[in-house]
Specification:
The structure is a single chain. The chain is an alpha+beta fold. The chain has one domain: Cytochrome p450, CATH 1.10.630.10. Helix content is 54%, strand content 11%. It has helices at 2-35, 54-62, 66-77, 96-105, 117-123, 132-147, 149-152, 156-170, 179-196, 201-216, 229-253, 262-268, 279-310, 312-327, 337-341, 344-356, 389-392, 432-447; strands at 81-86, 89-94, 111-113, 176-178, 362-367, 371-373, 376-378, 383-387, 450-454, 461-463, 467-469, 474-479. The strands form 4 sheets. Strands 1-2-8-5-3 form a 5-stranded mixed sheet. A 3-stranded antiparallel sheet has the order 4-12-9. Strands 6-7 form a two-stranded antiparallel sheet. Strand 6 (371-373) and strand 7 (376-378) form a beta hairpin. Helix 8 crosses helix 18 (432-447).
Length: 484
Amino acid sequence: MHDMEFTIFSLCIAFALLFVFFYPLIITVKLKEKIYPNPHLPPGNLGWPVIGETLGFIRAGFEGKPERFIRERMEKYDSRVFKTCLLGEDMIVFCGTAGHKLLFSNENKLVRTWWPSSVGKLFKTCLLMKAGDDAKRMRRMMMMSFLSPNALMKYVERIDMITQQHIATYWEGKEEVKVHPTVKLYTFELACHLLASVEDPLLISKLASHFNIFLKGVMSFPVNFPGTTFYKSIRAADAIREELIKLIAKQTREALGSKQDLLSRLVVIADSNGKFLTEMEVADNILLLLFSSHDTSSSAITLLLKYLGQMPQVFENVLREQIGIAESKEQGELLKWEDIQKMKYTWNVASEVMRLSPPAIGAFREALVDFTYSGYTIPKGWKLHWSTGSTHKDETLFPNPETFDASRFEREGATPYSYVPFGGGPRMCPGYEFERLLILVFIHNMIKRFKWDLLIPDEKFGYDPMLSPSQGLPIRLQPHQCST
């Protein structure tokens, strides 16, 4: 709680400074609004100049209830689209399946991806910051080289082996473990192995140190001044790129055919026009995947262990499925792609966990043109936001939305555009299958070895920017009497 209060206080100071700098601009904009009013904007409140309603938005996230911010305004304005001001930008929030469908189905037609300027300055040339043909080209190359199911099939055994080594080192023989930091280490080590064939413990430790500094600046104010969080984050990102470019140069000199990581593949694969990615584009995309696979996967795995620790019957059902898979294999035989496809109940449980507690709040777009939605004008240049909270807890889409029920995802699954922890449309998270693979392999190896108790059953979770436990989710491990 102290950290949250300190962060909000820091944000207030930062917003106050921004207000001083931008006050003349604000007055000009307000005068223009009076002279040229737009009566067709969605209902809502832009709040304080520059600050807008950002503090309420951030506070709801820190408290682990981002849907509260959305739901309160949906009810207040009796509308599934409303205007606000977040992160210093006039913004329109789209709620419900219709809003999601519009944003996900009109990429590069009505809307394009948008992120706060801090994200663009940190990730530079990666897929996240691309639009139009450039985004399609880069996405196609990444999917073809690493992230498609066909490409991932080749990595299942390696992921299983690395996971077993991690559990033997950091979990076995331990009475108590803090889940979140330990799982973050696991996902980072695994990403380093698979994305860039980094196996040197000293280099992994060096990259992890830079990476933890880098993470703190992803959603910070983009003030690149010595001593600020953003300044430190920029320096850390540059240090990671420098190490990645060294690896690119080394692998270019060596026999690339012997490497099966994403970095090696991106170096040698050209698009349909014969164009190769630059060293900086390769490094930026590896940095993006280190970020997405590390933070999202570690959050999802942590949450899954939390829910399994709270629900004995669900735990037993998952254990039964995983033991059945383990017993179908020879002693010491590693998991294969076919085994992952048998983990249907386990993935239904993980899906329900991410419905109730999505690792990320949502994402942003920008209007490319003026367009009309639900009778309202959406002006060109305005920023748009979609939120998992507007559908995941909607009782018309998920009856008894606060109740855990993994059977929701059996057979045909959820209503289209209602379940969106990985986004949707052309901008759906390209690492979805990769994250699914990591989650399932980890749970397979974890649950067949241990039961566990939560040491802080009512521990608070909050978004910063991913959903994480305030005290790391400490658990007490109880090894099974006979592990498979």
